[in-house]
Structures are given as C-alpha cells and as structure tokens.
C-alpha cells in the first residue's frame, strides 16, 4: 500500500472537507441474535446487522485526478471467549491489538484495502469534472461464527461448551481519498459495538442447550463529524480476519495456538 495521510482544508480548488456534503445514517437491527444448534460438531449464531448509509455530494474536480469515496472500517477492541466448563477456554485474539502495539486493525474485505468493500461501499470520480456529483454509499456487517461443542484441540464430538462472550468495538469512517496523492479526507466517523453473552448447558439435548442471556438489544451507533485521522494500521494489511489467532487456554497447562494468523 502507498503512504496515506490526512489532508488539510487550505485548498480552495477541488474537494476539501468543507465543500464535500455528506449525510450518514447508521443503525444496528433490533432483531435478536439467532442461535443454530443443528450440528453435533459446532454451535452457530447469526447476529443482527450493522448498517450504514451515506449520501455524498462531491464538488467539481478541477484537476486531472481521481477520487474514491467510501467506507473504511477497523476493529479497535476484541474480546471473544468460549468457556468449556472447568477444562479451560478458547479465545480469538489479534496479538498486535491486544498488546496495544496497534490502536486498530483493518476490517477490509482482505482485498480492497483500505476499503471495507468494492461494490456499494465505494464510488470513484475521475477528474476533471465541471459539475457536482451525488453518490449513495451503503455497507453492512454482521457475524456468523461456528464454535465447537468440544474443546478445540479435541477431535471428539462430546459437548463441553458452557459459555460464549463476545465484545467487539469498531470505527467506521466515511472518507474521500485522492488516489494520486493518497490524501485522505474524513467526512464522518461512526463508532459501534457488538456485545453478546450465551449460556450453554452441554448436558441437554442438541437444539436445547444454548440461550442468550445478554443483551436484549444492541446499543445504537454514534455518528460524529470529521475531521479526524485514521490510524495507518486501519488502512493496510493484515485485515482483522487474517490477523486473528485462536488460542486454547487449558486450566492446568500452557496455552496452545489452534489456528494461527494467516
């Protein structure tokens, strides 16, 4: 990736934060998380969607340059623990984020850095242009993971899973990027969190084991105006999916890396 950097608002020609109009709506669906207990090997759950919609009006671009406007997302906190009674727990972790070495990790699709996606999430304008351009940009995000009933270092199908706790925070920026200079203009910032607790009774029959204990509904996102800076780690590889590691922490022995980062 090139070197991205924020841009000042001194320029009177072409796009700057003060002459790009943007309006953002962001919500988390009020539908509950759905638990799926169909498999004897894994429990799955499907969470409500985070959704963001932006209306953007770009001013004329006087120079021969290309601008991309769209969504950039990063995870800045992650706690994802699966408890297996007194045997231990597994945890999905991003080591650089957990240690504080980086403030956030890119949540790109793993291809379209720094963008969250490359379809409805972005729009590109090639200058010069002599008129205002209107764009509608949308994105959505949810989780649909699988958690093994048995401890992750076992090849068995015995149910030992007793609790799932997931707590993640995200920052989602609506940004305009000059593709030539790599200048970034932050238009809006959305902060949102997803929290979930599931209790499991592994002695019960499949289909009757798990229940959601918190929360009944997710907190709604907070939208704020720019300006702002995006950490470099939120713009470049690796993505959160590729950076995370699954670690098994048995009660009486040393931790074991079950799934290393890609």
Automatic annotation (TrEMBL):
Superkingdom classification of source: Eukaryota
Protein name per its UniProtKB record: Uncharacterized protein
Organism: Ciona intestinalis
């Amino acid at each position: 990736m090139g070197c991205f950097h924020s841009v000042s608002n001194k320029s009177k020609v072409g796009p700057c934060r003060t002459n790009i109009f943007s309006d953002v709506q962001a919500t988390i669906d009020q539908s509950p998380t759905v638990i799926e207990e169909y498999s004897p090997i894994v429990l799955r759950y499907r969470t409500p969607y985070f959704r963001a919609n932006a209306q953007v009006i770009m001013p004329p671009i006087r120079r021969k340059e290309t601008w991309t406007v769209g969504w950039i997302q990063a995870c800045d906190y992650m706690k994802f623990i699966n408890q297996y009674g007194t045997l231990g727990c597994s945890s999905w972790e991003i080591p650089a984020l957990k240690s504080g070495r980086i403030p956030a990790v890119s949540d790109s699709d793993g291809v379209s850095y720094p963008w969250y996606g490359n379809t409805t999430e972005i729009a590109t304008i090639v200058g010069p242009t002599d008129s205002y351009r209107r764009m509608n940009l949308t994105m959505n995000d949810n989780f649909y993971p699988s958690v093994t009933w048995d401890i992750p270092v076992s090849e068995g199908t015995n149910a030992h899973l007793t609790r799932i706790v997931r707590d993640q925070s995200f920052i989602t920026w609506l940004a305009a990027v000059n593709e030539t200079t790599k200048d970034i203009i932050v238009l809006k910032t959305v902060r949102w969190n997803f929290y979930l607790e599931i209790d499991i009774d592994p002695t019960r029959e499949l289909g009757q084991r798990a229940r959601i204990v918190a929360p009944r509904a997710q907190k709604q996102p907070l939208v704020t105006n720019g300006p702002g800076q995006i950490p470099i780690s939120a713009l470049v590889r690796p993505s959160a999916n590729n950076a995370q590691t699954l670690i098994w922490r048995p009660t009486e022995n040393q931790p074991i890396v079950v799934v290393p980062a890609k």
